[in-house]
Amino acid sequence: MNITNKKIFSNKALLPDGWANNILLEIDRAGLISSVTKNCDKSKISFDLNEDIIIPAMNNLHSHSFQRAMAGLSEKQSPGGNDSFWTWRDLMYKFLDLLTPEDIYSITAFSQMEMLEAGYSCVGEFHYIHNEIGGNHYNNIAELSEKVLEASSDSGINICLLPVLYERGGCDGRELIGGQLRFKNTFDSYAKLIEKNTELTSKSDNFSLGVAAHSLRAVNDYNIEKMISLVDGPIHIHVAEQVKEVEEIEEAYKLKPVEWLLENQDINKNWCLIHCTQMTENETLALAASGAVAGLCPVTEANLGDGIFNGLEFFKNKGIFGIGTDSNINISLVEELKTFEYTQRLKHKKRSVISQSHKSTGRAVFDNCLKGGSQALQRKNGKIEEGYYADLISLNPRNIDLIGLSQDTILDSWIFASNYNLIDNLWATGNLLVKNGKHIKRDFIFSNYKQTISKLRSKL
Ligand SMILES: [Zn+2]
């Protein structure tokens, strides 16, 4: 793709040291910001585009893209009426018996298009469907990774592919069954998958690679270090989403999952622990001190009834957190940020929980998630600064919710007050992918997805 806007003038922009006015951003051929000049006299400089408000784009640190096609299909009461994460998971397994590689391509491209339109420039794809229906490996062990990467090339999103190791059905070593068989790898087959993915992700600057253990429940403890040694990149794991899962780990390892990881692994800034919704106070403080990212997915966690993260304690202790769209039940950056703060308000019965004396709530949540997202995917973005990727959003100044506002109230109004998606344009690695709120390939991606989703819904 070509970098179309090499020089962007913005009336206002959120820089690392705060809001600035009359900024000229220059973007080089590699999609990096090559200079940021504040307080320019607009009449005396040349530029390709004039925006009103520019802020950094966000990283979506945790997604299972294929689950976008299930969104909204598991909201009915099941027999017995005791619906939970586990009843949602049953639908997911049924769904897995239908998906072809082509379906995975079109669902992934569609969900990535929605992510870009929502304000995400990079996604951490926690990719765990690897096998054919029934569980055999494809002839090409990385067949489905290739489909995910092909979708990323077409949508233009930057992707950190996180192939997932999933070995067993539980801590007792029980076998995987049904839909789960599509996830299965032994450590040796996983190492082959990583080898192939190393080759695939080296083909584009928009791709990077990390490793992921599905969970302590699904991976043998002795394979975690071996898994980490395969790639020099981020390490992700589902950690403490459900009470039942925590109990299973505790019974097997005599420690809660976060405790076990902190005691048995070198948990540091390379790690991202997904769904820290079931942590004790000690785990919360120790994780904050470790420098690892707590990866929260507030909308999915609310949808699945997971529980509420100890956000205030974590934040007060300088813990690093970021957000992900996880099940993709509703791909909306604003909804994730808002739900994160609102669940904290409901938990603590107070307002503006995540805020600082010099930053509003919207700004504090946004800044923290930028930092955590960049760290979790090890991408040099999230700051409008020389040497960082030009992953940028412009907001629509014509919208009633932004007219006349300045500085942090822009973010507050966008996140808490608006019913609309206020993203006007989005650039990922300097490429303009969303223009006037619409992805540049929307019609093509949408029509592929429409065919796929119509076929799948007729079979469910
Ligand atoms: Zn997940």
Please provide a written account of the structure.
The protein has 460 residues and is an alpha/beta fold. The chain has 2 domains: 7-56 and 390-443, Urease, subunit C, domain 1 (Roll); 58-377, Alpha-Beta Barrel (TIM Barrel), CATH 3.20.20.140. Helices cover 36% and strands 21% of the residues. The model has no long low-confidence stretch (mean pLDDT 94). Bound molecules: zinc ion.
How is the secondary structure organized here?
Layout: E1 7-15, E2 18-27, E3 33-37, E4 49-56, E5 58-63, H1 85-96, H2 101-118, E6 120-127, H3 143-155, E7 158-165, H4 187-201, E8 207-209, E9 211-213, H5 224-228, E10 235-240, H6 243-253, H7 257-264, E11 271-276, H8 281-290, E12 293-296, H9 298-303, H10 311-316, E13 320-323, H11 333-348, H12 361-377, E14 392-395, H13 408-417, E15 423-428, E16 431-435, E17 438-439, H14 442-459
Helix pairs in contact: 2-3, 2-14, 11-12, 12-13
The structure holds zinc ion.
The site of zinc ion has 6 residues, from loops.
Structural class: alpha/beta
Mean pLDDT: 94
Radius of gyration: 21 Å
Describe the global form: globular
Bound molecules: zinc ion
CATH class of the largest domain: Alpha Beta
CATH architecture of the largest domain: Alpha-Beta Barrel
